[in-house]
Amino acid sequence: MNYEFQFDAVFAAWPLLLRGTWITIQLSALAMIFGLCVAILCAWAKTAGPAPLRWLVNAYVELIRNTPFLVQLFFIFFALPAIGLRLSAPTAALIAMTVNLGAYATEIIRAGIESIPKGQIEAGLALSLKRHEIFRFVILKPALRAIFPALASQFILLMLSSSVVSVISADDLTSVAATLQSQTFRSFEIYIVITVIYLALALAFSAVFRLTYQRTFDYPDRR
Amino acid sequence: MRSFGSPDLWFILAAARWTIALSLVAFVGGSIVGLLVALGRTSTIAALRVLATGFIRIFQGTPLLLQLFLVFFGAPILGFDVDPWIAAGVALTLNSGAFLGEIWRGCIQAIPRGQWEAAEALSLSYVSRMRDVILPQAMKIAVAPTVGYLVQIVKGTSLAAIIGFTEITRAGQIINNATFQPLLVFSVVAAIYFALCWPLSLLAARLERRRAAAYAR
After folding, report:
1. What does the pLDDT profile of chain B (217 residues) look like in tens digits?
2. DSSP classification of residue A66
3. What is the CATH number of the domain that holds B66?
């Protein structure tokens, strides 16, 4: 092996890398927020909704979980314009990520809701709380605690799989590689640097989530 | 431009065998790597534990797409001439190895301590202890999550399209470029993946339920 590694040109482009990293974080965070909203609605529909709605949510969850993210992205970016819905690359990326996360998070949240003992809900009813109050205070908060670790790792998976949106040039961290490659021709070095940035992001976010969990949810539970 | 016809449908369907082949390579290779990783993680030798943990951290903490790129663009630098097929096989093998290794570690550690101690009391060697006592029991627990992970492998193979390996997704892109009927083409592509993955998901859920029922008894 007599290849000379040249990282200078890659490091010289640090403002581009920084911008790409920031966009990846933004995309992931927004997709997480919107995806969770979708998931909470879907989880509610699945546990308490009428049968046709339950069936629809099931179809959505199964469809998303059993097809690759790349195909979902292509569908949204290439197929939706054919029916008159034209989206910019970052918007399409955000929608694809939201739709994808929503399906996975629905299952996580449903499992969280089912982890709440029935007696707790009955206690809420006995206190004459309204249905939406029971959902919010008696089900959602303890359920959130039960599912926080699963959601945290789902967020990291989402951030890592967001590198796929670079195929439609959504300006994210991996997209920067394509730009840099045409300028510096050091593709291997670029991919090494970008991979290390992703690894650092993943480790940093999992540390933050661990801390958050310890701070907010680490109360003793009585069983 | 021509319109989407049955030859196009056949072209995409025929590409499914490459998705299946790549999935099998990744699963078989990933199983070998995964077993080594799981044994390393549960080893009594600290160096092996650190090595296996580092391997898992790196492959679970970086995007599969970039692992694919690094193998594809890095192999020529090390002097290997790889085509997308081999690069995808290697990257997916390493990636599945990390995930399967972590799943199986959990299964190995779920075996009650008494089993380990009993095996040791019988002065079984490490190989015999693992092969005859621990792994057969761990395998029973591992079946459901492993089948579930197969779905992730099949979906992961779609990324090979990005480095130019003609499996289902790439076949869809090629047909879309010729017919420009993205709605139809990508619906077909999604339907084929769904047909491959859904039965596996259902099987995994069923196995999981059966296991949970066995435990509840």
Report:
1. 678 888 889 999 999 999 999 999 999 999 999 999 999 999 999 999 999 999 999 999 999 999 999 999 888 888 888 899 999 999 999 999 999 999 999 999 999 999 989 998 999 999 999 999 999 999 999 999 999 999 999 999 999 999 999 999 999 999 999 998 999 999 999 999 999 999 999 999 999 998 888 877 6
2. T
3. 1.10.3720.10
- Identify which of B62, B161, B181 has the shortest CB distance to residue A199: B62
How many structural domains does chain A have? 1
Closest residue to A78, CB basis, from B73, B176, B190: B176
Say if A85 falls within a structural domain.
yes
Q: What is the CATH number of the domain that holds A58?
A: 1.10.3720.10
Q: Quote ipTM for the complex.
A: 0.92
Mutation site for B-interface testing, chosen from A67, A163, A188, A199 by largest number of B Cβ within 10 Å? A67
User: Range of B83's domain?
Assistant: 6-216
Domain that holds residue A127: 8-216
Selection from B178, B107, B184, B176 nearest residue B141 by Cα: B107
Total domains in chain B come to: 1
Q: What DSSP line would sit under B156-209, residue for residue?
A: HGGGGGGGT--SHHHHHHHHHHHH--HHHHHHHHHHHHHHHHHHHHHHHHHHHH
Is B111 within a domain? Answer: yes
